[in-house]
Specification:
Strand order of the largest sheet of chain A: 3-4-5-6-7-8-9-10
Strand content of chain A: 5-15%
Number of helices of chain A: 9
Largest sheet of chain A: 8 strands, parallel, barrel
Oligomer: homotetramer
Shape of chain A: globular
Distance between the termini of chain A: 21 Å
Amino acid sequence: MLIGDHAVGGEELFVIAGPCAIESAEQLTRVGQTVRAAGAQALRGGAFKPRTSPYAFQGLAGEGLALLREYKQRTGHLVVTEVMDAAQLDAVADVADVLQIGARNMHNSYLLAAVGEARRPVLLKRSFGATASELLHAAEYILARGNEAVLLCERGIRSYETCTRFTLDVGAIAWLKQQTHLPVLVDPSHAAGASALVTPLALAGVAAGADGLLIEVHHDPSRALSDADQALTPEAFASLIERLRPLAAALGRRLPAVTARGGRA
Amino acid sequence: MLIGDHAVGGEELFVIAGPCAIESAEQLTRVGQTVRAAGAQALRGGAFKPRTSPYAFQGLAGEGLALLREYKQRTGHLVVTEVMDAAQLDAVADVADVLQIGARNMHNSYLLAAVGEARRPVLLKRSFGATASELLHAAEYILARGNEAVLLCERGIRSYETCTRFTLDVGAIAWLKQQTHLPVLVDPSHAAGASALVTPLALAGVAAGADGLLIEVHHDPSRALSDADQALTPEAFASLIERLRPLAAALGRRLPAVTARGGRA
Amino acid sequence: MLIGDHAVGGEELFVIAGPCAIESAEQLTRVGQTVRAAGAQALRGGAFKPRTSPYAFQGLAGEGLALLREYKQRTGHLVVTEVMDAAQLDAVADVADVLQIGARNMHNSYLLAAVGEARRPVLLKRSFGATASELLHAAEYILARGNEAVLLCERGIRSYETCTRFTLDVGAIAWLKQQTHLPVLVDPSHAAGASALVTPLALAGVAAGADGLLIEVHHDPSRALSDADQALTPEAFASLIERLRPLAAALGRRLPAVTARGGRA
Amino acid sequence: MLIGDHAVGGEELFVIAGPCAIESAEQLTRVGQTVRAAGAQALRGGAFKPRTSPYAFQGLAGEGLALLREYKQRTGHLVVTEVMDAAQLDAVADVADVLQIGARNMHNSYLLAAVGEARRPVLLKRSFGATASELLHAAEYILARGNEAVLLCERGIRSYETCTRFTLDVGAIAWLKQQTHLPVLVDPSHAAGASALVTPLALAGVAAGADGLLIEVHHDPSRALSDADQALTPEAFASLIERLRPLAAALGRRLPAVTARGGRA
């Protein structure tokens, strides 16, 4: 599957990094430049934020999309952002290189059908209450409409254990790789719920067979408007990538090269 | 909270019964007449069906709504049906006395906000991966838009146990009754996943404090187009209500009276 | 199944109440007298306490058994206490009318086999990580040795939900009643983890089909050496029984009569 | 921590492999020779088998221990075997280089205290219903008696997901490595429940930080008397180790060298 000029699901791991929520142009520039320099092929950032409470920060919406478009045009970096409702789809697809469907919408079959009509790759996150088999069924809603560019993403499931926020299900990654040709990414940030655990979970996900990563990075996590506890600093992200590099090689995979200017060779 | 002329959340239990999916006018008439005769204040039936697989029966859609409208006009029986997308809301609200939000949409904040603007009571089902606290947060999305008529519904959560399809969380019913003034219903059918277990789970839910029930009833369960295993026959439903009647009285609650003609006194 | 002169599993519910841990003769007398007056056929109290941490109170051991024996001889009240190791079995069986196997020992097949040789009824609690089917298998270890007096007990399982300490699985109670002739009790105290939720869970368990209850009662819960949060006062226990009485009747069951003197008619 | 002449918890991974249950001298010889040749520092094999049902194969008991002793004396290979009851401890400790406490006994505080008095390292497996924090508490029961040689082992927990038999909790491995100095092993075989998933789970566990592995290997899995579905053939085990070798190196760890004769250099 080609995203930009990257063959996702092949030898090279696909790395998406960036803030949970788009907050400002300066934030996108600072985070985007550093994660790109470290090797991330795409920047993620949410304009629409699905929050548990209606009183929590809900994202910058249209303004966030405009900031993302400006960032993309200026840098040429790929961008990934979430679409939460079919009514937003045209506006989001006009900016995003990859449409993200969040865990809370994995069962939203109307939204799945809508992105199935879009001409954009879809990053489909597993609901934290869904089986891996149900994730495949959800992907079918998209595939059945003719959009074959679906990336699955494991991001942790609900269990009784509380040492991590969710339980990262590496068994599901391994099982999915044996069941489907679709690429499978891993999101260790939401599973960990704590920045100190993100790197070992990222390594574990790739070792289990994941074809890429989705990592939360913020230039100043303590001031992040959402998911502050689990966001990595750009330096910590670069360190994660450096630890991942030899592991990827050991698995016959590779990570993108790092460039001094923040672009790719 | 008044629904029709029923004070929900008071002494009288509110009983909603009917098929998972609307299949035909004859089906609605047969099931509706018998559940009403047994004491159900409202008929449920889905025109839009959220299914795990895109290849399973998805409901009769607009045709189903038309059948439901015709049933309602002919009988005067209250009807409850699910809305799955904001684009359907006007059409559904035009027929439904109560708008149902299914478990798979509990986290769909756009749909929650949309029904928050509607002038219809909302039956909000708990996601099988959500905490009871998150159910209250989801209700806030509706309440915050001015719609104060929200009925919560516990329908079983995911756990490792497989003797039932989901694990009915009576502790959440008891906890919710201590946390909120909103009525709390129990859906034992989806939790049980097998008709033989529906009655004990219904009794347990009411004993834990539930203000009403949501029960799947089909005139010929073996031919039901969805959820065949857990649907009760009209006779089994009437038997459930007869077993529930003295239990309700013991708890200071009551069930509606039964009438010979299938209407209520 | 006869325990003392009580036919457990029949019309009369079997109620066991008392402190988590035996602390003193005075405690046993005060709690025992009041729970008996309210209708409990047996007093429970632990001499050996299985605790998560080795640094928490582990029970009075032999001294606790001596206090329990003295209480029993003086009052004639049935007593239930836990056996945690085969080496204790003779000493415990010499005092206990019912041998309790705790949730943490449900998979301890050596202990199960040992009580299978004992001439005492066994109260077998479900592990909070075990399926209902595995509880039946554990009972087989006892039955296979010739001890047919096994009472099963549901006490809540581990799930992701945190509004209760464990998730009381009323579906398992209903399922077990359809699978086995063995009596099934419910322990709402450990599931609730909070005294305010014990009564609705007790009612729900009986409504689901339980043949009796196991309730933690302490004369001064705030000073209890273990499980302080969930213990009921004797007054709250009496109130629970009074709320349970009409519900039991509605289900065709009954509770023991209350006597002024703390004994039974 | 030294086991034989291996520093467990250091740079070299500690690999234990062998059959679920000891079946015959020939089996031990065939499996032991091949897993040792591939790099396993120790052979595992159960003489006492904790089974869910009393009617399943329960192990060869004393005869199994005798076979294990004979294997050890003949080959000098380290052996790991489970102790299920304090009454067996002397007999087991007389043969075993490492005493295994199975998942079903993690909460058996009497057994934990007993092995706390033994002069043998203890491999403590996490109960599939226990939190990682409770695993640390269980280890304290052993440490508090003076035995400081405790190896923790993550082997999968119960969750609603069924694509693997248990959900391997790599987050707990990462968390434990940050909480304790004790070595942490991973058992991917019991988590996977299917041989095709053992290798990716093994890689994931080591990538998350595990200090070693526990792998089920049988010379003829289809005829194994227990756990047939998840046992690897000796060839598949050797292949797993070869895939693990570069990954370990990438993580700054290493695996033991392979020797032609089935011994180690």
